[in-house]
């Protein structure tokens, strides 16, 4: 066991850390996470449009078109926000002007993803003559196009800046004016490149990426049990190595997660029943059914620690309970520790795999609905699961069942670790007494 741990420390951890800290991966992660406040707020509007109380439903019926606007301009144009977030994050890592890079990336994305449709005559009561953009082109389906467009735009900008192929203003010109002129040449190249690719060559970047990557979405964030279990295993496995699991997996899996929950929200908003939504494995599925107290379902371990005979484990458990209730578990992971701990690492990985399997089968058999909203990660799991599944009582009960299962799985491993900790505390006490004597 010690040899395996040493091998992981020497070979696997450096590789994983290098991947997780790679400049473009970090920019993707930061850019997508930056969209969370918008999508969470938009999800609340979706949730509160669907409270299952007949009098409430009748009351808001005349206002539904207006109440739908916030979700359309948050979840509905997710890729647009992601483009700006990724581009500005990457520009900052290069110490470039993030505002210019963000705007140029937005321009490139709109040119390639959202060609305007022209209506020449008024259609009475429906639409006026003019040019229109289909909001669907800016939504989750274009997320991978947004990632590629943002990265390419910043790299083109950086190339021209590093080669000094820019318009330089005299000393004393305000930086905002100077930066605008610096962006002129790279901006023109970016515009011409993406315009020519989409409208002259006819290359649809979003369609191309969707064709290539959508099969992966079906595995990692669609309805595949294997994909769901693989995702859960890798996140927990990296945590056991001391590496932030979502940070490593985020650039790979988060675009699929964001697309999946956006598709679910959109389908639900358009009248699809919560049991018939497109995707089971969203981030919210894991967040509320599996990560009860954080990755590894550590709230169960915290509860066991609170009643431990070990003073250290008892104190840590009581200190960790409130953060754990709101799904913050770094104190437990690094304080117990679970990191590089083969005793607690085993249930940390196994328990979520079991509850994922149970939750999956209860979902496909329509016992619990699929996720139709994106709430903040700090909600207590039973309440968030109830709200995120269109107010399903069974979803809240599933959280409690999964917690009980996890508690039972952790218990024998915890008792072994507790005994080790008690022996250690007894040795330290004996040593202290001998020194005092």
UniProtKB/TrEMBL annotation:
It is found in: Cell membrane. The chain crosses the membrane at residues 32-53, 73-91, 98-115, 135-160, 181-201, 221-241, 288-308, 328-351, 358-379, 391-414. It comes from the Bacteria. It holds the Pfam family PTS_EIIC. Its main location: membrane. It is a multi-pass membrane protein. Residues 8-413 form the PTS EIIC type-3 domain. Keywords: Cell membrane, Membrane, Sugar transport, Transmembrane, Transmembrane helix, Transport. NCBIfam families: lacE. The phosphoenolpyruvate-dependent sugar phosphotransferase system (PTS), a major carbohydrate active -transport system, catalyzes the phosphorylation of incoming sugar substrates concomitant with their translocation across the cell membrane. This is Permease IIC component.
């Amino acid at each position: 066991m010690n040899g395996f741990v040493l091998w992981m420390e020497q070979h696997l951890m450096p590789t994983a850390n290098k991947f997780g800290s790679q400049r473009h991966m970090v920019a993707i992660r930061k850019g997508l996470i930056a969209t969370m406040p918008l999508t969470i707020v938009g999800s609340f509007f979706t949730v509160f449009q669907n409270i299952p109380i007949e009098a409430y439903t009748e009351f808001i019926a005349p206002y539904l078109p207006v109440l739908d606007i916030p979700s359309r301009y948050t979840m509905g144009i997710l890729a647009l926000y992601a483009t700006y977030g990724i581009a500005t994050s990457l520009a900052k890592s290069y110490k470039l002007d993030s505002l210019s890079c963000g705007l140029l990336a937005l321009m490139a994305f709109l040119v390639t993803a959202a060609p305007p449709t022209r209506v020449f005559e008024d259609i009475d009561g429906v639409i006026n003559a003019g040019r229109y953009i289909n909001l669907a082109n800016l939504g989750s389906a274009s997320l991978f196009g947004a990632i590629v467009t943002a990265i390419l735009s910043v790299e083109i900008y950086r190339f021209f800046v590093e080669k000094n192929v820019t318009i330089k203003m005299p000393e004393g010109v305000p930086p905002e004016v100077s930066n605008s002129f610096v962006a002129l040449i790279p901006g023109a190249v970016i515009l011409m490149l993406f315009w020519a690719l989409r409208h002259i060559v006819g290359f649809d970047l979003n369609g191309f990426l969707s064709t290539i990557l959508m099969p992966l979405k079906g595995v990692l964030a669609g309805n595949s049990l294997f994909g769901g279990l693989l995702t859960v295993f890798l996140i927990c496995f990296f945590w056991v190595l001391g590496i932030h699991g979502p940070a490593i997996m985020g650039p790979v899996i988060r675009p699929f997660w964001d697309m999946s929950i956006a598709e679910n929200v959109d389908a639900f908003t358009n009248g699809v029943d919560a049991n018939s939504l497109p995707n089971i494995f969203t981030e919210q599925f894991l967040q509320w059914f599996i990560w009860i107290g954080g990755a590894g379902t550590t709230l169960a371990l915290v509860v066991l620690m609170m009643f431990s005979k070990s003073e250290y484990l008892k104190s840590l458990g009581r200190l960790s309970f409130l953060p754990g209730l709101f799904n913050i578990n770094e104190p437990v992971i690094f304080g117990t520790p679970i990191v590089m701990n083969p005793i607690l690492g085993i249930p940390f990985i196994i328990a979520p795999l079991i509850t994922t399997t149970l939750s999956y089968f209860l979902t496909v058999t329509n016992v619990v609905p699929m996720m139709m909203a994106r709430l903040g990660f700090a909600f207590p799991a039973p309440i968030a699961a109830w709200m995120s599944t269109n107010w399903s009582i069974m979803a809240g009960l599933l959280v409690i069942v999964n917690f009980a299962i996890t508690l039972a799985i952790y218990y024998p491993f915890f008792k072994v670790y507790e005994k080790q900790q008690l022996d250690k505390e007894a040795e330290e006490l004996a040593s202290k007494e001998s020194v005092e004597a």
